[in-house]
Amino acid sequence: MMRQIFSLDGRRALVTGSARGIGRAIARAFAEYGATVAVHGVRASDALDQSLADVRAFSPQSVAVTGDLGEPGAAAKIVSAATTAVGAPDIMVANASIQVRRPWLEIPWEEALLQMQVNFHATLQLFQACFPAMAKQKWGRLVSVGSVQEVRPHNEMPVYAASKAALENLVRNLAKQVGEDGVTVNNLCPGVFATDRNAEALNNPVYAGQVRGKIPVRDFAQPEDAAGAALLLCSDAGRYITGVTLRVDGGMGIA
Ligand code: NAP
After folding, report:
1. pLDDT tens, N- to C-terminus, the chain (255 residues)
2. What is the DSSP string of 32-68?
3. How far is the C-alpha of 30 from the C-alpha of 141, rounded, in Å?
């Protein structure tokens, strides 16, 4: 039965940055499809509580974990907290990121390093922490969350865009190495989503109109628009998909 191949019954998923936005929508979809979910935010917050309530409506055993991925050792601690609470993750979606707008000549060293740490290095560290248990059971899903900026870099976000482009290369590298362990590795790549980080920019009607003009479907995405792609990559339906960058961008990357 085709519907069954999308089921996540019995799976455990960790989704970083799932207090809000795209991560929250992915976490909720995973719970709806049967997974026990560890939602995650930098720290305790109303948003994290609300996201946990969302997933618990479908999956009462779900938990919330916290940690700042800019800090050394945080990725391993987050995976360890999720493992203690619900068991080792079968599905790891590295969704949290930092995005700073600044002209390239003014980017300070510390700010560049922090974006690379949270967006790229922490993804590698999360994958490293989750992989051994996945390999042992011969089933796992590692997903990074990239950006359409991998192919359409914004002038004022060169480090952010480069950190996302590095993920595309990382998943191709790792996918070749871990396929025989039953683990797939993919990069889910959003376009312009109406989430907190874009609220101020997209509230400017002139700017919003310019951005819409660069998107073939002429609309911004809602967080839920990423959930179907995540479910495909992370269920048995995605068994034969590995090493890809899957853009959910209304065609922006080809425009
Ligand atoms: P968002 O609404 O800004 O939420 C970001 C999440 O990441 C929050 O839950 C936040 O935790 C967490 N986070 C931020 N800094 C962190 C840190 N240092 N350590 C750990 N967690 C941290 O994000 P979004 O717009 O949904 O974006 C989700 C992903 O999609 C990101 O990787 C982003 O780069 C990518 N993306 C988004 C767009 C877009 O248009 N929105 C486009 C392309 C790619 P708290 O809630 O605790 O603050």
Report:
1. 788 999 999 999 999 999 999 999 999 999 999 999 999 999 999 999 999 999 999 999 999 999 999 999 999 999 999 999 999 999 999 999 999 999 999 999 999 999 999 999 999 999 999 999 999 999 999 999 999 999 999 999 999 999 999 999 999 999 999 999 999 999 999 999 999 999 999 999 999 999 999 999 999 999 999 999 999 999 999 999 999 999 999 999 998
2. HTT-EEEEEESS--HHHHHHHHHHHTT-TT-EEEE--
3. 13
Report the pocket of ligand 1 as residue ranges, CB < 6 Å.
Answer: 16-17, 19-23, 41-43, 45, 47, 68-70, 95-99, 118, 145, 147-148, 190, 192-193, 195-198
